[in-house]
Task: structure prediction
Amino acid sequence: MEVIPPEIQAFAEKYTTPETDLLYRLHRETYLKVDQPHMLSGHVQGRFLAMVSQMLRPARILEIGTYTGYSAICLAQGLAENGLLHTIDVNEELEEISARYIEEAGLRQKIVQHIGKAAQVIPQLNEVFDLVFIDADKAGYGAYYDLVWEQLRPGGFILADNVLYHGEVVLPETEQSNNAKAMVRFVEKAVADGRAETLLLSLRDGVLLIRKK
Result:
C-alpha cells in the first residue's frame, strides 16, 4: 500500500531543494549495491531532517540506525559549533559505505559511528541529547524510547521513522504485519506518555515527532 501517491511524491520533490551531489551519489550507490535500499531516508525526508536540525541547532544528536549514512549526513548539517552526532548500526558490512561518505562530507569530526546493538550501546553513551532519530528494527522502538528518555533534555525531540509502515497501520489488525503492529504499539505508547507531546506527520512512510515536556 502506497502511503503517498507517486505523483504527489514527485510534486514534493520538485519543490524541495535538490540533493547535494554527494547525497545523490550516496543515494545511487545504495540502490545499486545494498539490500533493501528503500530504507534510505532519501531526498524529501533528508531535507526535512536537515531543516529540523538547522532549526534546533543541537549540540548532541543520537541516531539509531545508520544504514548507509544518508540521514546522519543530513542531520549533521544543523549541529551547533563543536556539536556531535552519535549513530548506531548493527550491520558492520555497511560501515565502509557510510564512513566513506561521512569522510567525503567533511563530517568525520562531527559524526561518531558505533557498530553494535543499540540497546547495548546507548547506556554507554555519557551524553545529554537534544535530538534523537529512531530508524531501526521496528520491534525495538518502544525499548529505544525508554532507553533514550533520561538522556534526552527537557524540550528535546525524538523523531521516529516508518510509523505508518507502508500504510499497514490502518488495516485491520489481522491484516497487519508484525512490523506494522509494532508501530501501532509504539505510537500508542508515546501518545499515552504524559511526559511527551506528539505530532504524527504523513511524510514519506510516516514520522512521529515527540517533544519531551
Notes: The first strand starts at residue 60 and ends at 64. The chain has a mean pLDDT of 96.
